[in-house]
Amino acid sequence: MNNKKKLQINEQYYNLFCGLIIGLLLFNVLNPVEGNKPLIGSSIKVYLDKCYHIHHWIIFLFLHVFIIIFYPNYKISFITGFLIGGIFNGLTFYDFLSLKC
Predict the structure, then answer these.
(1) Is 55 a member of any domain?
(2) Total structural domains in the chain?
(3) pTM, whole model, 2 decimals?
(4) Is the residue at 5 inside a domain?
């Protein structure tokens, strides 16, 4: 593998790492885990026959899967890290699987 290819791979992982850290920090500030009310809405409420609570980690997971499926040439980047950071943050909540309001 030549040096240019190594540099591109290292840059991709650097961007992934930066996105992950910024995503985790941002969502920990905006959506604190315990006891505090989030500064911004951390979910979407859908009213069908009942009220469903779609958490931000589910939204980010769908966005990430959408990118992987419909943009197969998409490279690892800051956005990938940011979405994964948001998913990790959402999974730290005690009610992360609770979908009913």
Answers:
(1) yes
(2) 1
(3) 0.74
(4) no
Cβ neighbors of 96 (< 8 A, separation 6 or more) are 55, 57, 90
pLDDT at 7: 61
In a domain, 68, yes or no: yes
Please tell me the distance from the alpha carbon of residue 56 to that of residue 83, in angstroms, as a whole number.
10
Length of the chain: 101
- CA-nearest of 100, 5, 8 to 52 is 100
Residue 99 exposed, middle or buried by CB count within 10 Å (0-12, 13-18, 19+): middle
Chain segment 8-64, per-residue pLDDT in tens: 667 888 888 999 999 888 887 776 655 555 545 555 667 667 777 778 888 899 999
Which residues, at least 6 apart from 18, have a Cβ–Cβ distance to it below 8 Å?
A: 78, 81
The range of the structural domain enclosing residue 87 comes to: 16-29+43-101
